[in-house]
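Worked example (supplementary).
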Amino acid sequence: MTTKLSVNINKVALIRNARGANIPDLMEFARKCQDYGADGITVHPRPDERHITREDVRNLSKLFPNEGCEYNIEGYPTEDFIRLVLEAKPSQVTLVPDDPQQLTSDHGWDAIAHRDMLTESVKEFRSNNIRTSLFIDPIPQQLEAVKQIGADRIEFYTGPYAHDFPLAQSDEQRTQLVHSFVAVLPLINELGLGINAGHDLNLDNLSFLKESIPQLLEVSIGQALVRDCLYFGLENTIPMYKRLLC
Ligand code: PXP
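After joint prediction of all chains, the assembly is encoded as:
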C-alpha cells in the first residue's frame, strides 16, 4: 500500500517571517509541492503565529480541493483554532496536545483525561465533513479512548523512534525501536482506526517505519524535508520521499 506524503510547510513560513516580506511565498511553495507530487500540505498554526499565520491558513485553503492533494491542519482545539479550521475546511484536522509556548509537539494526547473536550471537538469537525486524527502514543488504553471519542485516525508520534534510529546498528535494534507501534497494530485494526505518523521523519528513518507499519496511510514531514530542499531542491526532494513510501 502506498503511504501518502503530506508536506508540513511551517518552516517555510518561519523563513518568510524572519524578514517581514513575502519571501519565500508560501502559496507558491505549496503549489509547487502539489506540482511535484505531494499528496498533502500540512500547516500547524500556533496562537503566536510564529510561523503559519491565520491568514496563511485561510489563503492556503484556496488551493483546495485539489485532486490528489489534501489540506491537513494541526493544532490544539481552542475555540479560535476550531473556528479557523471550520472556515478553512481542510480534508483533515490533526489535534495535538501542545501548549502555546511549546517549541514543537513532543507527546501524544492523554485521550482519557481529555475525553470530553476531544469528543466535542471531533463531533464538530466530523459534522462539517472534516476527517479527524489525534496525535497519540502507542498505548492500548489511549487508542481505545480515541475510538470512543470518535476520531477517524491516529497519528503516531514518531519523535523517540527518529531520535534513536541513528543509534540502532542491527535489525534487532531497529525492530526494538518500532516494537511499541507494531504491538498495537492488531488493536488498531480491530478498532478500525486509520494510521498516520509524524515527527522527525527523514530520508534515513522513513523506509523502516513504513515497512514496520504496512497499513500506514500518511506521514507528515516538515523539518527534514525543508532541509533536504536546500541541498537537492524541492523538485527532487519530494520524489525522493515519495519513492520510499511506495
Ligand atoms: N506531526 C505533528 C503533530 C507535528 O506537530 C509536526 C511538527 O509540526 C510534524 C508532524 C512534523 O514534524 P517534523 O517537522 O519533525 O517533520
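Two points are worth noting when inspecting this output. The radius of gyration is 17 Å. The beta strands are 4-8, 40-43, 70-75, 92-95, 131-136, 153-157, 194-198, 216-221.
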